[in-house]
Design brief:
This protein is α/β, with parallel strands linked by helices. The chain is built from six helices and eleven strands. The protein has a seven-stranded mixed beta sheet with strand order 3-2-1-4-5-11-10, sandwiched between helices. It has a four-stranded antiparallel beta sheet with strand order 6-7-8-9, with no helix packed on it. It is globular and about 50 Å long.
Amino acid sequence: MADRSFSDVSLAALYDQLNPWGAGDDFYLDLVMSARSVLDVGCGTGRLLARAREAGHGGRLCGLDPAAAMLVQARRRAAAEWVLGDLGSARWEREFDLVVMTGHAFQVLLGDDEVRTALASVRRALGDGGRFVFETRNPAARAWETWTPDRAREVSDACGGFVRVSHRVERPVLGDRVTFSETFEHPDWERPRVSRSTLRFLGADALRGLLGDAGFVVREQYGDWGREPLSPRSPEIITVAGAV
C-alpha cells in the first residue's frame, strides 16, 4: 500500500522484497514499452523503468520520487533519469507520451487542491495525445477492513532474516480518508519502525470529475489488472486518461 514510510533507508532497501513484482507491474510494463517517453511519478526503487530498459525500451525514461532513500535504490540502476521531488515542484512541458502513477500513490493526494495541482503538472508534462494511467483502490471494496494486526506477514531480507509487517486502521474512518499505522519489526532492530499514513478513497465518478476539470478525458476504467469492467466488487479503479 502506498505510504511515506519508505523514506527510511533500511526500509527502502527492503521495498522490492516487501512488494514483489505482480500483475499490476506487468500491466504498467506493457504501457511503458509502447510509449516513446515515459514519466513514472512515485517511481520508488525504479524497478518498473529498469525492467523496461532491460526489455529493450530505447526512448526516454524518467522517474520522480519525493523520498531520497528510495532514489538511492533507483540510482543503482542506470536505466533512467532519476529526479528527487514531487508533482508540486515538477516543471516539465509537453515532454512525455505517457505518465504513470503506480502503487496506489494517487491515494496520498488527500485534498482536492492537492489533486488539482498534481493533475495540472501531469497535464503540462504530457504532449499531444499523451496518456495518464494510475490506479486507486475501489472504495466500495473496503480494502481497509483487512488491514488488521492479525493479518501480519513476514518477508525475508537479503541476509536471511525476516521483517514482520502489520497494519492497524484508526477508527472511525472519516469520509473518504483512511488513516492507519504500519509496523515493521526485525530481530536485529532495537525497536519496531512505525509509520502513520492517510489515504484517500475516491470513487470513479469523483475521479472523472477531477480529471475533466484538469483537461483530461477518461478513456478506460478497469476493475482489475486483467482489464475486467469496473463493478462495485472490483478491487481497483484503474484509470486510463487522455490529455485533451
